[in-house]
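Researcher: Next sequence.
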Amino acid sequence: MERLLFLGVFACLAGIAVIFHTAVRQRNAPAVVNTGVSFLLVFVPVLVDVLTHWFYGIRVGLSPELPLWIAVTGLFHSYGMLGPYDEISWWDHLTHTLSAALVAALLYAGVIVALEYAPVAAGTGLIWVTVVLVTLLSGVFWEVIELLARDFGRRCNLPPVLEHYGRRDTVLDLFFDVVGAVLVLAADLRLFVPMAEVSPKTTVAALVVVLGGLVVGSLVTSLIVVVAQAESKPRTDSGRSD
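Model: Next structure:
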């Protein structure tokens, strides 16, 4: 079974590489950047496993399901950059559901393990609320990043690496982020619990860092976007002429 999962990872990487080549030939800079990042992200879990073993002498219990999920999500996102995001109305909903479900699955595993060592008992409701809210917060952070990328592209007269399609699209993106989280919770998907159980203290610390990073990151990037948009508005002369 693991061999098949690893074959799936390699197949997705091959697909992403083909899309990267196509994007280069089309001189589609946003697709090149997004496809390159999607390819590299697949190796992040392996890098984390190597670094934790190197510095702390522990393994994170890496299973092929995690890089496969990242690879599948990256494949759909990369292909979307070649046109489906603009031509297929539901493509963006699909990629948001897939990515949010991955975030929620990792959070779910972390919260389950963290609460096992908490001094107070927590019910299923608290777990659901925590996972959904943090997944939603990660979605908000992503939407602000899209706005920042759009404004940066406009200032530098470059095509934006990430495209923002307006408020209605943002609301739909956040809705499908919640859908992805709810699907994970409804299925009681504990796929990554063994990874979280390897070092509970590290898991708790990672949850704190992630939550703090999302809160601070969302606030800082939102402030940057607001300031940038305020500066870009044309100034009107409020003075009275004689």
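Model: Residues 104-230 form one domain. The two ends are 83 Å apart (CA to CA).
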